[in-house]
């Protein structure tokens, strides 16, 4: 599914859940009905501002407009993902992962020394780990499904199975997000 198709389906899904007509959503979001109609048809290239206006009008988090069915693992390499650009500034964003309802997330900046290997026992059932590499290179993931990640790469994997972190460069800095059921 292409990113614009994903956004189109999400806008329509959330509009219908809110019980809003196309005209009502367009008016509330301050958009032309034709613009909204094109977006729901999977056409166009919406800006960050347009998507924020739609999310605000629907009273949903911005990330809901990128929601997909979850899988056990997601790997996004540096330069991958669909950037959403601002109309007014040199700013783009790529949604790596949104937080599903009934979950909590803890965020850590982790510094790792070269050659370090950390083996982790399974966390409580339903735990998901999100790893974004800010600097360096690491090998991470469930024992039989390790991935090598470089700066800019993102990997999501089940944290409720044995997994490990191995530093392949002189040093590494990662953003680690531990997501667990509430």
TrEMBL record:
Organism per entry: Roseibium alexandrii (strain DSM 17067 / NCIMB 14079 / DFL-11)
Keyword DNA-binding annotated: yes
One Pfam family in the UniProt entry: Cupin_2
GO molecular function: DNA binding; DNA-binding transcription factor activity
Key words of the record: DNA-binding
Domain (HTH cro/C1-type) ranges: 11-65
Family matches, as SUPFAM superfamilies: lambda repressor-like DNA-binding domains, RmlC-like cupins
Protein name per its UniProtKB record: Putative transcriptional regulator
InterPro entries from the UniProt entry: Cro/C1-type_HTH (IPR001387), Cupin_2 (IPR013096), Lambda_DNA-bd_dom_sf (IPR010982), RmlC-like_jellyroll (IPR014710), RmlC_Cupin_sf (IPR011051), TransReg_Diox_bact_type (IPR050807)
GO annotations of cellular component type: cytosol
